[in-house]
């Protein structure tokens, strides 16, 4: 079974090589005429104001944390789905309970306003 | 006939990688061309039609132009990450297709060859894992550029992609429940019609999982940052989003990655819900691998070619609908997008999984064998769900849009603003004419 991964290894190598080749080639071939104005960050033609990597909405962090929780839900669901038709009723009920607990968590986050954007 | 092994297997794998990778790069090029032509068609223009026959060489011209253009290096950028980001965006898009079967197995002197780069036992998990890597390119480009627009685009992109990734993976769960395997060829076999065989369903999964198809399609669009979900690069707000600061080939590499991802998504929709390389109403392509590794059915090179054509046609049609959607629908607002992802899709997919699980459980206990009748029963469940979804819930309740009140308010404001402008213009004109009149009077007085 291990040899079936050979294709992925070769494809991965080809993919990385392809990306490196394209980007590298254009570094070599393209013209280079840098100037101070050309390399200043784009801000609709104005001289840039303030820093660029500033503080941003805390919502993005909350979304990232919620994502981890729900991605783990997916990880539990996928193997369950594969063997689902061979499982007794308990197997199904266990997953329903798991999803319910998760649902309560989502409702809590929702009510706390974690999903509100303004 | 047994599977190819040993030295010939290695040679076959290398050949497959080279051929399919070239085909993918070619279809990325053709995909951009197709997008521009279809967009032009929708907007009643001609589109690119000068370079080569019907404009087909436009892609080559664009590629050469991009290669020869100057690579700009923003002074505020972190150079290493700035260079790495486009590569990280391109690589997942071009290696994602490894586990997708393109055609029926082909016979050779050394055994049959699967028309799939790597028939690994993790199948679908590989797709989910690699597809989620695309977010690194976006977030790294946004952060390393040192531009506010790019930064905001990268933030938005990462939040959107992780939000919809959950929905994307969950909408595949019903497919896995029916297939009972994560290997993609098994999912194709499931959709082929073997009369009297209770391990296959015999119909494309779009029928028994109608709502699931819709959800996968929707989340697939969001995952690839396609309109109506292209908030990370909303040009009206963020100039170019996360790739604002990129020029020439590095920008083109982002585009290639995007189209590679998009084409792969079209392939995934085809494989999971539209039968993959299966040719409908024909049992000649009933070729599959048995549990002991031997091949059931009669493989032939012409069948491989025919099924490949069928796969390309199906995938092309799905890709065409992506373009159609892009040039038809307006863009979401960011809060609407996150609301759709977190407040609707995740809940709905979870309920959908439970409903389908109950239905499968009930049908199995009722003693109904796998087959078209089984699929028809599931289709009934899906139709009921679709009706509930579209005619009961979604009347402006699920997705909080502008709403009637807000719309009326906006129209009132617009009319008010127009009235004011008209009045100002009028009073300005009146004042002007009055001034002119007085000047005229003055001059006439002076003249007197």
Task: Write a compact overview of the structure shown.
The complex is a heterodimer of chains A (118) and B (448). With 118 residues, chain A is an all-alpha fold.
Describe the structure.
The complex is a heterodimer of chains A (118) and B (448). Chain A is an all-alpha fold and 118 residues long. Chain A folds into 2 domains: 2-31; 58-111. Chain A is 61% helix and 0% strand. Chain A has 3 helices and no strands. Chain A has helices spanning 6-29, 59-83, 89-111. In chain A, helix 2 (59-83) packs antiparallel against helix 3. Helices cover 65% and strands 3% of the residues of chain B. The longest helix of chain B has 45 residues, at 403-447. Chain B is globular. Chain B starts with 6 loop residues before the first helix and ends with a helix. Chain B has helices at residues 7-42, 58-68, 79-95, 124-131, 134-144, 148-170, 173-179, 184-190, 210-223, 235-238, 248-273, 301-326, 334-365, 372-393, 403-447; strands spanning 103-108, 111-115, 288-289, 295-296. Chains A and B meet through helix 1, helix 2 and helix 3 of A and helix 1, helix 2, helix 3, helix 4 and helix 6 of B.
Task: Report the mean per-residue pLDDT of chain A as an integer.
Answer: 84
Q: First CA to last CA of chain B: what distance? A: 116 Å
Number of domains of chain B: 1
Largest sheet of chain B: 2 strands, antiparallel
Please work out how many helical segments of chain A DSSP would assign: 3
β content of chain B, as a range? Answer: under 5%
The stretches of 5 or more residues of chain A where confidence is low (pLDDT under 50) are none
Give the overall shape of chain B: globular
Overall domain count of chain A: 2
What oligomerization state is this entry in?
heterodimer
Largest interface (CB within 8 Å) is between: A-B, 70 and 90 residues
User: What integer is the average pLDDT of chain B?
Assistant: 83
């Amino acid at each position: 079974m291990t040899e079936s991964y050979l294709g992925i290894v070769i494809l991965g190598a080809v993919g990385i090589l392809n990306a490196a080749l394209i980007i590298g080639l254009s570094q070599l071939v393209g013209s280079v005429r840098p100037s101070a104005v050309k390399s200043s960050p784009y801000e609709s033609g104005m001289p840039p104001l303030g820093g660029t990597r500033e503080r941003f909405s805390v919502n993005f962090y909350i979304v990232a944390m919620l994502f981890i929780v729900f991605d783990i839900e997916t990880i539990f669901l996928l193997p369950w789905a594969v063997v689902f038709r061979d499982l007794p009723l308990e197997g199904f009920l266990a997953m329903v309970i798991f999803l319910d607990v998760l649902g309560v968590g989502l409702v809590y986050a929702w009510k706390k306003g974690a999903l509100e954007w303004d | 006939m047994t599977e190819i092994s040993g030295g010939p297997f290695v040679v076959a794998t290398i050949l497959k990688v080279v051929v399919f990778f070239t085909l993918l790069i070619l279809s990325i090029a053709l995909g951009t061309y197709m997008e521009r032509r279809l967009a032009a068609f929708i907007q009643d223009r001609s589109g690119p039609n000068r370079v080569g026959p019907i404009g087909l060489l436009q892609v080559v011209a664009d590629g050469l132009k991009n290669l020869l253009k100057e690579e700009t290096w923003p002074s505020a950028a972190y150079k290493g990450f700035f260079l790495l980001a486009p590569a990280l965006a391109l690589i997942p898009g071009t290696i994602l297709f490894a586990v997708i079967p393109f055609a029926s197995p082909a016979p050779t002197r050394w055994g049959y060859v699967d028309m799939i780069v790597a028939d690994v036992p993790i199948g679908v998990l590989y797709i989910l894992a690699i597809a989620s890597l695309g977010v690194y390119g976006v977030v790294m480009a946004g952060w390393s550029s040192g531009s506010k627009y790019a930064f905001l685009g990268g933030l938005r992109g990462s939040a959107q992609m992780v939000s919809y990734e959950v929905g994307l993976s969950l909408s595949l769960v019903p497919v896995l429940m029916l297939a009972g395997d994560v290997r993609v060829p098994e999912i194709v076999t499931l959709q082929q019609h073997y009369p009297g065989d209770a391990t296959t369903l015999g119909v494309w999964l779009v029928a028994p999982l109608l709502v699931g198809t819709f959800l996968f399609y929707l989340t697939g669009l969001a995952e690839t940052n396609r309109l109506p979900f292209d908030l990370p690069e909303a040009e009206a707000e963020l100039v170019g989003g996360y790739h604002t600061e990129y020029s020439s080939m590095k920008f083109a590499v982002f585009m290639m990655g995007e189209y590679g991802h998009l084409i792969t998504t079209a392939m995934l929709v085809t494989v999971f819900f539209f039968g993959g390389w299966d040719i409908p109403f024909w049992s000649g392509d009933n070729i599959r691998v048995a549990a002991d590794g031997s091949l059931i059915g009669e493989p032939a090179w012409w069948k491989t070619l025919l099924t490949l054509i069928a796969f390309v046609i199906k995938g092309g049609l799905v890709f065409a609908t992506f373009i159609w959607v892009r040039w038809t629908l307006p863009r979401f607002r960011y809060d609407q997008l996150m609301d759709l992802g977190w407040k609707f899709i995740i809940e709905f997919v979870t309920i959908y999984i439970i409903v389908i699980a109950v239905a499968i459980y009930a049908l199995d206990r009722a003693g109904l064998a796998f087959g078209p009748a089984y699929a028809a029963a599931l289709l009934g469940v899906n139709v009921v769900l679709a009706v509930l979804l579209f005619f009961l819930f979604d009347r402006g309740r699920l997705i909080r849009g502008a709403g009637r009140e807000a719309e009326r308010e906006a129209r009132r404001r617009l009319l008010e603003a127009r009235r004011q402008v008209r009045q100002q213009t009028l009073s300005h004109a009146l004042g002007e004419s009055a001034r002119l009149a007085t000047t005229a009077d003055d001059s006439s007085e002076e003249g007197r």
